[in-house]
Design brief:
The structure holds two protein chains of two kinds. Chain A is of the alpha/beta class. Helices cover about 35% and strands about 25% of the residues of chain A. The chains are: A alpha/beta, B mainly alpha. The complex binds adenosine-5'-triphosphate and magnesium ion. Magnesium ion binds next to helix 1 of chain A.
Chain lengths: ~260, ~230
C-alpha cells in the first residue's frame, strides 16, 4: 500500500522538549492518505506529545518546544505562513475523555462550522450537523435530542459526538488519543467500526494502549519507546515478527 | 526470551508444550512398535499399537482444547500466537501419523507370515522397506526434537531427511511393482505391501509438515523460504 498511497503527513527528525526534558527524540514517520496509523508504546513514551505535535496542540502547552520538520501535503506546519487555526481544522483531534462543550448536542457540532463561516444560513448549518452526525454514526440516536445538553449523552455517544464535531470542520487528518479508554466493549466496537468507515475519507492517527485494538483498527503500527520511534510497519508484519526486541516484548507482554 | 509479565501465561504455554511433547512421545512409541511388528510379528505389540491410537487421539484433544483456551483467554500475538498455531498443526500431523502406524499393523496382520523373510515374496525388498521405515522414524525423531529445542536449523535438517526417505520409498515401490508383474498370483499381498510403504511415506510427509510448523513457530517465516538454494525442492 505504501507504493500506492500518497504521503499526507511527513515527520523528519522531530524532537520535543518540556523545558529541559526531552520527550521525543528524532522521530521520522510518514502518514499516508486514507490509512489508519496506530501509535503504541508504554506510558510516557511520547505518543500524546507526538500526536499533539501534528496539529500544533503543543503550542498551547507552556514550556513545550518542537524541533524538526512536520509537513502536511508538503507544507511545513511550523513554517511562518502557517495559519494555526486553519491547521487545526484540517488536522482534527479527539481526546481520551469525551469532552463535549457544555452546550446542546446541535451546538456541539454546529459551533466550529459557524465560527469558521462554513455555512451561509441556518439550513446549510443544519445540513452540516446532520451529515457530521451521520458520519459519526450518531444521527439515529440523537436526532430527537438535538436540544439536550451534549453531556446528557452516554460516554460512547459523547465520544462519537466529539468525532462528529471534528468531522464537521471537514478535516483531512483526524488524531485520536486513546479514544476508547473510557468506553465499554460495545461503545468501543462502535468507535472501531467508525474508524474503519472514516478511513475512506481521512487519514487517522490513533493512540491506543490496547495492542488488540491497534491490531483490529490499523493498517500500520508505530511503536514508541522512551521518546524514540523504535519501528513502524504494516500491522500484520509487526504483529507476526517485529524487528526489535523492545517491540516484541511490548506486544507479547514480556519484560524487555 | 524474557518471561511474560503475567506468569500464568508462561505456565499455560509450558503446559501446552508439555501436551505436544507428550503426544510426540506417544506417536514415536507407536510408530516404533508398528515398525517392529512389520518385521517380526507380535500379537501383543499389534494390540498395543491399536490401543495407542486412542491415547494419541486423547492427546490431540488435550492440545486442541488447551490451545483454544489460550487463544480465547490470553489473546496471544507474534511468537506466542505462532506457538499456539504450531501446536495445533503439529498435533494434527501427529494424529495422522498415529493413524498411519495403525494402518501399517492392520495391513501386516492380513499378510501371510514370512513374506519379508529371506526367500519370502518380498524378501528382496526387505532392506529398502526397512530403510524407508527407518528414515521416516528418524524424521519424526528429528522434527520433534527440533520442536522441543525450538531449533529452526534442526527443523531444516529434519526436513531435508525427506530425500533419503524418498529414495528408499521409490526403490520399494519399484520392487513391489515389478514383483506384481512377475508374480501375478501374489498381487493381493503385494498391493497390501504397496499401501504399507505408502503409509510410511505419509509418515514422512507429516514429519516434514511438523518441521515446517516448527520453523514457522521459531522464526515467523516459511521453512521453504529459508532453505539454502541447493536444497530447493518443488
Ligand atoms: N505538560 C508537560 N509538562 C512536562 N512534561 C510533560 C508534559 N506532558 C508530557 N510530559 C512528559 O513527556 C513524556 C511523554 O509524555 P506523553 O504524554 O507524550 O506520553 P504518552 O506516551 O502519551 O503516555 P501515556 O500512554 O501515559 O498517555 C513523559 O515523560 C511526560 O512526563
Ligand atoms: Mg498519552
Amino acid at each position: 500500500m505504501e507504493g500506492l498511497s500518497r504521503i499526507k503527513v511527513e515527520c523528519r527528525g522531530v524532537s520535543a522538549f518540556y523545558g529541559e526534558t526531552q520527550a521525543l527524540n528524532e522521530v521520522n514517520l510518514s502518514i499516508y492518505d486514507h490509512e489508519v496509523m496506530a501509535l503504541i508504546g508504554p506510558s510516557g513514551c511520547g505518543k500524546s506529545t507526538f500526536l499533539r505535535s501534528l496539529n500544533r496542540m503543543n503550542d498551547l502547552v507552556s514550556g513545550c518546544r518542537i524541533e524538526g520538520e512536520i509537513s502536511l501535503d508538503g507544507e511545513d506546519i511550523y513554517g511562518r505562513g502557517m495559519d494555526v487555526t486553519r491547521l487545526r481544522t484540517r488536522v482534527g483531534m479527539v481526546f481520551q475523555k469525551p469532552n463535549p462543550f457544555s452546550k446542546s448536542v446541535f451546538e456541539n457540532v454546529a459551533y466550529g462550522p459557524r465560527i469558521h463561516g462554513m455555512a451561509s444560513n441556518r439550513s446549510e448549518l443544519e445540513g452540516i450537523v446532520e451529515t457530521s452526525l451521520r458520519r459519526a454514526s450518531l444521527w439515529e440516536e440523537v436526532k430527537d435530542r438535538m436540544k439536550q445538553p451534549g453531556s446528557s449523552l452516554s460516554g460512547g455517544q459523547q465520544q462519537r459526538l466529539c468525532i462528529a464535531r471534528a468531522i464537521a470542520l471537514n478535516p483531512e487528518v483526524i488524531l485520536m488519543d486513546e479514544p476508547c479508554s473510557a468506553l465499554d466493549p460495545i461503545a468501543t466496537a462502535r468507535i472501531e467500526e467508525l474508524i474503519a468507515e472514516l478511513r475512506g475519507s481521512y487519514s487517522l492517527v490513533v493512540v491506543t494502549h490496547s495492542i488488540q485494538q491497534a491490531a483490529r483498527i490499523s493498517d500500520r503500527v508505530a511503536f514508541f519507546h522512551l521518546g524514540k520511534l523504535v519501528e513502524d510497519g504494516l500491522t500484520g508484519d509487526i504483529y507476526n515478527d517485529p524487528k526489535d526486541d523492545r517491540t516484541l516484548g511490548y506486544i507479547t507482554g514480556r519484560f524487555g | 526470551m524474557p518471561d511474560h509479565i503475567v506468569t500464568g501465561f508462561d505456565d499455560d504455554l509450558g503446559r501446552l508444550r508439555g501436551h505436544v511433547r507428550d503426544m510426540g512421545l506417544r506417536v514415536r512409541c507407536q510408530y516404533n512398535d508398528a515398525m517392529s511388528c512389520v518385521f517380526s510379528w507380535d500379537e501383543d505389540l499389534y494390540e498395543k499399537v491399536l490401543r495407542s491410537d486412542d491415547e494419541v487421539d486423547r492427546s490431540e484433544e488435550r492440545v486442541v482444547d488447551f490451545s483454544t483456551q489460550i487463544l480465547m483467554l490470553r489473546q496471544p500475538v507474534s511468537v506466542d500466537l505462532r506457538e499456539v498455531i504450531s501446536a495445533l498443526r503439529i498435533a494434527c500431523d501427529l494424529e495422522r501419523m498415529g493413524d498411519c502406524a495403525e494402518h501399517m499393523v492392520r495391513r501386516v496382520k492380513e499378510l501371510p507370515s514370512g513374506v519379508l523373510e529371506d526367500g519370502g515374496i518380498l524378501g528382496d525388498m526387505r532392506d529398502s522397506i526397512y530403510r524407508s521405515m527407518l528414515h521416516a522414524g528418524e524424521q519424526l525423531e528429528g522434527t520433534m526434537s527440533s520442536y522441543e529445542r525450538r531449533d529452526a536449523e534442526e527443523a531444516i535438517r529434519a526436513w531435508m531427511l525427506d530425500d533419503k526417505l524418498d529414495e528408499a520409498y521409490a526403490l520399494s515401490v519399484k520392487g513391489i511393482l515389478s514383483s506384481m508383474k512377475n508374480l501375478p498370483e501374489h498381487v493381493k499381498v503385494l498391493s497390501s505391501m504397496l499401501m504399507l510403504v505408502k503409509d510410511v511415506e505419509r509418515v514422512g510427509d507429516h514429519a516434514t509438515n511438523i518441521a515446517e510448523s516448527v520453523h514457522y513457530m521459531v522464526t515467523g517465516r516459511r521453512l521453504k523460504d529459508a532453505l539454502p538454494s541447493w536444497a530447493g525442492k518443488d
